[in-house]
Design brief:
The chain has 11 helices and 20 strands. It is of the alpha+beta class. Strands 5, 6, 7, 13, 14, 15, 16, 17 and 18 form a 9-stranded mixed β-sheet that branches. Helix 1 links the parallel strand 1 and strand 2. The longest helix has 20 residues. It is globular. It starts with 10 loop residues before the first strand and ends with a helix.
Amino acid sequence: MVQVRTGAYDCDVLVVGGGIVGLSTAYAITRAAPGTRVTVLEKEPGPARHQTGRNSGVIHSGIYYRPGSLKARYAVRGAAEMVKFCAEYGIPHAVTGKLIVATERAELPRLHALAQRGRENGITVRELGAAQIAEYEPEVRGLAALHVGTTGVCDYGAVARQLARASGAEIRYGARVARIDRRPERGVAVLTSSGQVVRARVLVNCAGLYCDEVARLAGDEPDVRIVPFRGEYWELARPELVRGLVYPVPDPAFPFLGVHLTRGIDGEVHIGPNAVPALAREGYGWGVVRPRELAGTLAWPGAWALARRHWLYGAGELRRSVSKGAFLKAVQRLVPAVGSTDLVRAPAGVRAQAVARDGSLVDDFLLRETPRTIHVLNAPSPAATASLPIGREVASRALAILSTT
């Protein structure tokens, strides 16, 4: 049994998880309180190996999110801060703007509602008619669209690496958490799979795909489970067909944005992602199955309730996963000129989505405090965009705990 010993702390704050949220938290702590000793444990050999390094690189404007929510506030603020951070450190980025395109009449009321939501969130939105779409994207077809000028793209892997360097934290790679001993009157001790013991006054759980498991190791019941959804991407062989970012009108009942086209900072255009259940938390392909993790998902009542509630939507996503033709059809709704030979397989990502016991998808960032511990229990997209404000919020809470211990 690993135990905490009073007066034998290796650091003040121990962060579990070396993705962009964990590294932003470490960065924010040392900026706000110089001299605070921060250690980051990351199970991979380097930073940003999962959600951070496998997304489409979009700097989201914040248009989609419920006014007043953490997602709305942090995405709007975070987008501006991310552009500034990239400029300060010479990280490749571009503010390209994007189109959200309605291709059916039934989508027009949702498109208008989205414009209103964007304005409530303080975002400048231009509503376009069908003829105006070509001003921005000559190959895109639709009945109407929104142009959102503050959307951009960047290299989030490079952002994470810079946060790691600038934080001044001790970062231990290849350090998987095996056990946690938390004692409110003393602190937290973590045993890694390699036998290292790290003792801290405060623990911050930014473990992403495994955040609920780390919470349980710490003795907390998070009341949600991470259900992994794989997002599959294709690359466009003719990138000249798309100038910037093109999105469909999202389904408000589901937190995924639909198949969209994104011109990245490298000039390549990625198409996707869809959203299908993954058979492992790091299930980047159908062939990756981890029975223990799959059993854990199937044992959670919320997973079954979610499947019953959204089976029709899920069936469509599965069809686009196994059928290139079905995926192509979704793309051609936006860009008819794209043909089958224009689609080239690209690496997939996995979204760590928190699901409640009743099957509802947690639709906002979820932070939870327990004695000596802060858990980040839901931080999917737009968490990369919002990572700097999220990091400051978590850092503020961690420093508040430190001040009382």
